[in-house]
# Entry
Amino acid sequence: MYDLIVIGGGPAGTSAAITCARHSARVLLLERGRFPRHKVCGEFVSAESLDLLFDLLAPQHARLFPAAVRIPRARVFLDGRTLHTPVDPPAASISRLDLDAALWDSAEHCGVDGRQQVAVQSVSGTGPFVVKTSGGEFESRALINASGRWSNLNPASADAQNSGVKWLGLKGHFAESSPPASVDLYFFEGGYCGVQPVDMRNGVAPSGRVNACAMVRADVASTLPEVFVCHPALQERSRGWKPLSNPVSTSPLVFREPQPERDGVLMAGDAVAFVDPFVGDGISLALRSGRLASECLIPFFAGNISLPEAARDYRTTYERGLTRVFRTSSKIRRMLSFPQSLRMPILLLLEKTPAITRYLVSKSR
Ligand SMILES: Cc1cc2nc3c(=O)[nH]c(=O)nc-3n(C[C@H](O)[C@H](O)[C@H](O)COP(=O)(O)OP(=O)(O)OC[C@H]3O[C@@H](n4cnc5c(N)ncnc54)[C@H](O)[C@@H]3O)c2cc1C
# Structure
């Protein structure tokens, strides 16, 4: 009997597992994939969670953090205009290949029983829990579902099968000489593509690699080259790019209401809900919610509260602290999908009044 089973070894799952293991809980962390691996992501790690990330990493991975490329500004390319906004404090650009592997290793370093290539098939109970996997059955007193946006364990995955418009995520690394230290968002009808410099511990020099990551409607594009031609400035910029990684893709991308707890199971990261990627806060939300879920369980493991009380504390704290990010990002998404005639006056206003842009950015954190 484990104290805690965590399903999913991404940022949310590893953050949860490390937090509980450091409080002497017996933790089993199950991941169906294998690290290191590329993942569809803009790789923009917002400043709000950099201290937490630093705290989670084992000493041998601490270098990942100071070595990361810093992103002090954003440029939005939309309707032939360019909106500039500072990213203050600066974000970090860290490849998911390095980040996820370092977090996994850090979890094992602090005593978590981590098992890769073990897929969870079903969960029964409301505490204790029985978890059936491709590698056998396990039991635990508490359960955190950090299995991400798209998993056999999340009801939203079933909803997505029936929703009309299909969105894809696409990503690849490319060689570009001296890219600017900014996150550049190219918006076009039916999607957008973010581009930023990214470092790799074993890769080329930071000044020579960019990550291009798109969210696009399936009827508009299904490959990165098809995305690049959707925006004239991006088409021009990408002309000399040489691929440095195999492209990866994911689908579908589905937005829904956040649900931090279900039947005594604490949800963390994208399993709660998927935040619109252009706000660049998904990794941060994953790290923060993983930690929060575990912090709410620690008094339960100590025998001071019941599991339903721990679950209620998590739901309340999550809703108070984190749900506004989803609300703000869905408002911005709606605004960006207005017809151009309505969008233009808003853009002009934002161009003339950078304080409004800064306010919107702060509300999406
Ligand atoms: C196009 C796009 C661009 C993005 N850009 C950014 C960005 O620039 N910055 C940012 O902060 N966020 C970005 N995000 C969001 C970010 O990638 C996610 O928010 C983040 O990965 C969530 O972490 P997580 O741990 O919740 O889920 P994940 O990282 O998805 O981890 C979940 C893990 O669970 C595993 N799993 C699933 N089912 C099972 C099962 N049954 N059994 C065992 N294991 C299972 C999966 O293999 C996976 O490794 C982007 C997302 C997309 C789609």
Remarks:
- The mean pLDDT is 89.
- Residues 282-301 form the longest helix (20 residues).
- The radius of gyration is 20 Å.
